[in-house]
Amino acid sequence: MSNLLKKLFGTLIQKPWESERAAIDNAHEGKTFNISVQKSAVIIIFGIATVLFSLVFTSYLYTLPPDQDTNYLLRPNLLWINTLILFFVTYFFSKITNDLKKTETLKVKKNL
Questions:
Q1: Around Cβ 41, how many Cβ atoms within 10 Å?
Q2: 20 to 30 A from 103, CA-CA: which of 22, 47, 73, 75?
Q3: What parts of the sequence cross the membrane (predicted)?
């Protein structure tokens, strides 16, 4: 935790307008995280899929009447379809992650 605070406050107290700091900043690559473009695209795509899944599930929960018992929550077809989609997304995410580790970009494009 203290390492995170040191990095955060170290970044906040930098003075980019000073000439010695400008020389350091000009040598910077411009990357915030040390991950490839492909891996960041996969993270974004599956993040969006997760958000959409949670929005559909939450909207379903809001359509339930307040007096209805939620014991039968697993019976509707919509929930089973969303669960199946989530399993597919998880399967392809693991395949793409393994392909990225092996640097096989053609398989990554196929699985997307």
A1: 14
A2: 47
A3: 41-62, 74-93
89 CB burial (10 A radius; 0-12, 13-18, 19+): middle
Q: Give the pLDDT confidence of 30-58 residue by residue, as tens digits.
A: 666 677 888 888 889 999 999 999 999 88
0.85 cut: is pTM over it?
Answer: no
CA separation for the pair 15, 17 (Å, rounded): 6
Structure token pair of residue 101:
């580790």
**Which structure tokens are listed for 44?**
């974004």
Report the alpha-carbon distance of residue 95 to residue 111 in Å, rounded.
Answer: 8
Domain boundaries, the chain: 34-111
